[in-house]
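Continuing the series of single-chain predictions for the mutant panel. This is the parent chain; the variants come on the following pages.
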Amino acid sequence: MTVPAGIGHNGGPSMETGRLLRTHQWRAAQRALMPNAIPKLVLQMRLKRAAELGMDYKTYARVRQFSGQDIVGLLFSSNALRILGYDARMPASREEKLQAVRAAQKLALVQPPLSPEAVLLRNPVLDAVGPAPRFTDSWAQARARIEAVIRDRKLSGAQVLVIGEAPLEQEWMAAGRAAAYLPAGEYFMQTV
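Parent structure:
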C-alpha cells in the first residue's frame, strides 16, 4: 500500500520494496530536468562580467554559484593592495588592475598606522576606505567595522567579494556576510 506524500515531503523515492529502482528513476528524472549547460547568451554575459571585475570566468562562476548573486563590490585588505607603511600608496601594477574594473565598487580596509583618509587620498582608484578589524576586536566589533564600509556604499554583504592576503582576513568573509573570499595572489595574478 502506497501512502501519499504529505506536506514537507521532498518527492524522493519511498523506502518500500523496490527502492533501488525508484531511486535510480528519480535521480534520472531529476537530471533530465536540469540543463547540462547554461544558455549561450547567459554565458556571454557572465564572461563579460568576469572581465569587468578583473577575474577569469572560472573564478567568477565559482563565486557567483556560492553567493547566488552578482558581485558589485570588491573589498580589499591593505595587505592585498600592498599598501604598507606611511606612504599609503599601492603599487602601480595593482592600481592599473583596479582601474580596469568596471561596474563594481572598490573598497578597502586598512591596518594602522595607515589611516583610511590618507589611503583614499593617495589612491583615488578606490571608492571607499575604512579601518580594518584589529586583532584585539571581538567578533561583533570586527563585524561592525566590515559592515560599516559595505553599508556606507549601500551594498549587501552577499554582493561583495573579499580579497585578502593574511590568514585572519579570510574571516572577514563570515564577519561581513560577504559572497566569498579570494586570495590576493589569485586575483592579481589572473589575466583576463
